[in-house]
Amino acid sequence: MTSSTSSGADLLTAPSDWLAEQPGLSNRLVFRHALARLADQDERVVLLEADLAGGGDPYAARHPERFLNLGICEAAMLDIASGMAATGHVVFAHTFAPFGAMRACEQVRLGLAYARANVKLVCDYGGLSGAFFGPTHHAIEDLAILRAMPNMTVVSPADGLETIQATRAVLEMEGPVYLRLGRNRVTRLDVARPAFALGRAMCLREGSDVGIIAHGEVGVSMALDVAARLETQGISARVVNLHTLKPFDEEALLETAERTRLLVTVEEHSILGGLGGAVCESVASHGLGRRVVRAGIQDRYDSAAGTHESLLQRHGLEAGALVETILGALPRPRLAALAPSRRG
Amino acid sequence: MVQVPLEERARRIRRTILRLAATPVGCHLGGSLSMVELLVVLLGRVMNVRPQEPRWEERDSLILSKGHAAAGLYAALAEFGFIDTEELVQRYNAEGSPYTGHVSAAVPGVEFPTGSLGHGLGLGVGMALGHRLRQRANRVFVVCGDGEMGEGSNWEALQIAAQHELSGLTVLVDRNGGQNDGPTESILSQGALVQRLSAFGLGTVEVDGHDMEALARVLEAPAEGPRAIVANTKKGAGVPMLRGKGPHYATFNPEQLKRALASLGEVTP
Lengths: 344, 269
Fold this sequence. Notes:
The complex is a heterodimer of chains A (344) and B (269). Chain A has 14 helices and twelve strands. By secondary structure, chain A is of the alpha/beta class. Chain B contains eleven helices and seven strands. In chain B, the strands form two sheets. A five-stranded parallel β-sheet of chain B has the order 1-2-3-7-6, sandwiched between helices. Chain B has a two-stranded antiparallel sheet with strand order 4-5. The chains are: A alpha/beta (344), B alpha/beta (269). The interface between A and B is medium-sized, with 28 and 30 residues.
């Protein structure tokens, strides 16, 4: 593993250059390097692990005194995180998403959210990225559960650059955060983007037919792919990266609804309760009367083995399939106006 | 300043708890009364606290993991000057008040909101680890119920406390033998609690939880690692009318309150 300073560029001052020098690093490893670098200049940072840090962790190597591997004890780890935060530390607690967000759910609720603890729960293995390990290691309900908790901030960075930016941003804010990462992807979005700010969605591409709102590594890269494919068919898509699911950027949603004719959500999470749920809630509460196509994990556990990509495909999370769905769902006001009236 | 004897402190706390049982929704009475001596020795003798400055940085911390016994903790905090006794009795469980039926951290002197069982030990281990990392000497005391030891998260936290040799942490188990649905031993036995805590790596002693001298002796002894004190107590202790087996939860009517206070030797107006 490459240390965060062995390369030429500095991760914090030149993150894009630093990432370019380490093209193979997954976002979950980018996080570890980013936290190691951030902890150089912030003595408050502590990282807790529950036996899933892996070998050669860059943070553990750099800050051994502020690294505690507590063993296979997720529930206790999160209460401990809250206790440590109460003594002035900023505690990052890492494990896999199904264990952090769901096994230790009440500790997240009471130790973190209710207590407004300055704890950042960082989970990889978001969505189906645990692939071959099966549904015990998939997290398809975590966003719905954590989004429902008052005081919680819920963030899924879309790529390496955003992972660095989000890690810094959550360290700088006070309060509990769920930072969700995947496992496998080496996502490096090749797209110009505005500055990253928690709670503020970013428009990655303007368009007037379809408004695609996306969340997370798989969601955003798929949305950009879908938009490019739609363009070849003469359909223009606006792509919004809603990296912070909570607090939810309603303004970005309303703006997208105003500028487009169909809303589409893309996320690596159940279509119930996550991004799709949040967008539907807002559309309904603002009385927009707009159809929302929700691309995501269908409401079922998939126990058959498969690669990450094939599992996504089985749930329809695949650019080609989503393009077809969108083409079928797009309202065609001009064609409708030209068609003869059925009432005769 | 005149020192109030600890025995008198305990009596006064019991009176307040009984008055809280006589409020409209009542309180967890048995388990509040059983831990009175534990709280008196901690707050009145062992712990380094400033009631007028509850968030003082150098304070020792008390975490009531058995947060249903809120009436007992609030009454003790009132006795030691963190909050006002009359305000507590007037506003306990009242609309909009901070004095909720399970411990609220909005009350001065309370570190964490507890009452869902099995969280206090983890929170306490975290505080002890945090203080040690900051090279501070603050100590952390966690009071658990014996029935509460059924929660697996406690045993996770105890393993971690032992692994990290957390000498700043003291666990007190209020071994009153009762839980919501009846005697602890008939529901989920904690019969070998001392041996289990010792086997988990805690320096463990068993004491009479109503003997304040004995409690003070073990709490003031120097610690080499995390410690556990199994304090044998009785539900409803100290109130003759309840004969040491007070109800888990009670709502007193005025007549019952009068009799209970009278059994403590107090004449009500």
